[in-house]
Amino acid sequence: MLAQFTPTWMIEATYNINPKELKQLGIKVVLTDLDNTLIAWNNPYGTEELRDWMTSLERENIQLVVVSNNSHRRVKKAVAALQLPFISRALKPFSGGIRRAMRQYQVSENEVVMVGDQLLTDIAAANFSKIRSILVRPIIESDAWNTRINRFFERFVMHAMLRKHPELKFRKDLINERNK
């Protein structure tokens, strides 16, 4: 049961994910959750660090796509300033939103990675889609009310997963400190 929630990698922060390393791993498209992964849930404008990371992805010809469970209206408003493509109402942990993005960008399972801050939605959706995943720490510690429920259950899953896989730790990069 824990396998469906186990990420490929655990990285301290989204912006620590090195696009050159992604390129070495054959990644052409990065799918990312929106709230507390790409931007703080209460700050739709992002940060300078986010813009720098987006520029470095662009330099490596890696497409960044937001895959969110939020409504079309909410995601469109949140990513407008960033001018990012998105899939809304992705229904994570189901694989439909990820599969839709893969078809749209014509990539195979080994050319895409899902980045998210939640085991029960983002990482489970990646595993159901048979793609690699990166669990990141949330950008801020507070969450929207609907995410707090997930976080409660996620603590138990995380504890059990780390007991079973003690080699999984939050790291600074993908390749040099690769999880086994």
Distance between the termini: 19 Å
CATH class: Alpha Beta
Give the strand content: 5-15%
Please write the string of helix (H) and strand (E) elements. EHEHEHEHEHEH
C-alpha Rg, in Å? 15 Å
Number of domains: 1
**Uncertain stretches of 5 or more adjacent residues:** none
Helix amount: 25-40%
Overall geometry: globular
Q: Kindly report the spatial arrangement of strands forming the biggest sheet.
A: 1-6-5-2-3-4
User: Architecture, CATH level 2?
Assistant: 3-Layer(aba) Sandwich
Task: State the total count of DSSP E strands.
Answer: 6
Structural class: alpha/beta
Q: Helix tally?
A: 6
- Look at the structure and give the mean pLDDT: 89
Task: Walk me through this protein's architecture.
InterPro entries: HAD-like_sf, HAD-SF_hydro_IA, HAD-SF_hydro_IIIA, HAD_sf, PGPP1/Gep4. Pfam families: Hydrolase (PF00702). It comes from Secundilactobacillus angelensis. This is YqeG family HAD IIIA-type phosphatase. With 180 residues, this protein is α/β, with parallel strands linked by helices. It has one domain: HAD superfamily/HAD-like (Rossmann fold), CATH 3.40.50. It has six helices and six strands. It has a six-stranded parallel sheet, with helices on both faces. Helix 3 links the parallel strand 3 and strand 4. The mean pLDDT is 89.
Sequence-ordered SSE layout with sheet pairings:
Elements (H helix, E strand, L loop, with lengths): L8 E3 L7 H6 L4 E4 L15 H12 L3 E5 L4 H8 L6 E2 L8 H10 L6 E5 L2 H10 L3 E5 L8 H20 L16
Parallel strand pairs: 1-6, 2-3, 2-5, 3-4, 5-6
